[in-house]
Amino acid sequence: MENKQSVWWRVMQGALLIELVGIIWAVWINVRQLITLFGKNITENGVFGLQLSIVLVLVLAALWVFFSLKAAISRKDWVRSSNLTIQILVAATATGILQGIMSTKAVGLTLLVCAIAGVAASLMIASSQRQMSNKKKLNQ
Question: What's the CA gap between 64 and 5, in Å, rounded?
Fold first, then answer.
């Protein structure tokens, strides 16, 4: 039972790691665009403010995923809830990408696979923890 649980913890950690790398990449791209806009008229159509808000949201998302990944490595119980929330948001983003709103279909599919794997990991970890708890109760 412990071995199966370890596999699902690794799946969760892998999904979070891939998502963290993707967010850091997105931050890098958006910071470069922000720097490009800074040289122009920064009040033009409010584009600078929009780009700045995107960078701030991405930085907050990166921090959230980083601390969730750190907790997943330590196998903290609360991380399953955080992971589920992250994966729901990632699945929504993947759906938007696959509908052609932004980016490429390869990115959308990668995000969707990560989201499905992350949700499955959270659910399987919870299930195996319940089974272990029930076995301990029966043995007492």
Answer: 23
Q: Which amino acid is at 55?
A: V
Length of the chain: 140
Burial class (CB in 10 A: 0-12, 13-18, 19+), 68: buried
Q: How far is CA 137 from the centre of its chain?
A: 35
Angle of CA points 75, 78, 80, to nearest 5°: 75
47: tokens are 């584009």
pLDDT in tens, 39-81: 666 566 667 777 888 889 989 999 999 999 999 999 998 998 9
Q: Is the pLDDT of residue 139 over 70?
A: yes
Distances (CA, A) of 61 to 11, 17, 31, 104: 20, 13, 15, 21
Phi, psi of 83 (to 5 degrees): -60, -45
| CB contact burial 107-139 (16+ within 10 A = b; e otherwise) | bbebbbebbebbbebbebbeebeeeeeeeeeee
Q: Give the pLDDT score at 41.
A: 61
